[in-house]
Amino acid sequence: MGTNSTDIASWLNDCGLTDKSCSALATVLGSDTSLKELNMSNNNLHDSGVKLLCTGLENMKCRLEILRLNDCGLTYKSCSALATVLGSDTSLKELNMSNNNLQDSGVKLLCAGLENMKCHLEILRLSDCSITEEGYKALASALRSNPSHLIELDLTGNDPGQSGVKELSDLLQDPNCQLKTLRFLGPAADEACQYVTGIVGKNPLLLRELNLSEHELGDTGVNQIAALLQDKHCQLNTLIYVFSLLQGHL
Q1: Rounded CA gap, 226 and 221, in Å?
Q2: Do residues 116 and 146 touch, judged by C-beta distance below 8 A?
Q3: DSSP H helical ranges for the chain
Q4: DSSP character for 181?
Q5: b (16+ CB within 10 A) / e for 145-183
Q6: Which pLDDT does position 6 carry in this prediction?
Q7: 8 A C-beta contact, residue 89 and residue 115
Q8: Could you report the per-residue pLDDT of 105-129, keeping only the tens digit for each?
Q9: Alpha carbons 44 and 143: distance in angstroms, whole number
Q10: Within this chain, do residues 87 and 206 fall inside the same structural domain, yes or no?
Q11: Residue numbers of the domain that contains 216
Q12: What is the structure's pLDDT at 196?
């Protein structure tokens, strides 16, 4: 049944499903099947559907490792049920809830599950979920409480403000933090941020002034910095790189 399970996971996204489908799927999840991945993205499940689905996810017979619920019309109400799942010693390792209106209240509820030492989640995707600095602070706190498993966190398309950025930056400096991939910028700005950090040794999102003198940027480097400056998370108001430009003409 393993091969069929994988195929089924790919068939259920964008299928016009509603919460009525979730009761039957919950029964399947709790029936000792070999289903490892379930993709129900782009369906009208709403909070009521997720709550039904969670009854199957909580079953000790459930072997699901990957659950995708992006763009399913969810709100903070889904997060309470999913937090219970995360804290119930399930096999779930990847959860995608992107493009849902979870807001900070939903993230705070979800953090109750992340803080549980029984949580084995490794990948959490929450892009475009209307999360602000309060949600970022809650996530940072939860991951400090239980840093052992989560290795990838996607928060692209949310607005943490500078305090939220600092919370995440401080978290990454924690020697107990296991995060290997943290996304909250667009692809171009993320690449630029890593580039500048590599040059100056500091996260440019936490700086008001950036001095790149004595560095040979070249056209590629300048283009990356331009991408960074265009991102809403960047608060730089002074950029110094005249000397590096002059060097290129000596």
Answers
A1: 9
A2: yes
A3: 2-11, 20-29, 46-57, 77-86, 103-114, 133-145, 161-173, 187-200, 218-230, 242-247
A4: E
A5: ebeeebebbbbbbbebeeebbbbbbebeeeeebeeeebe
A6: 44
A7: no
A8: 999 999 999 999 899 999 999 999 9
A9: 31
A10: no
A11: 188-250
A12: 74
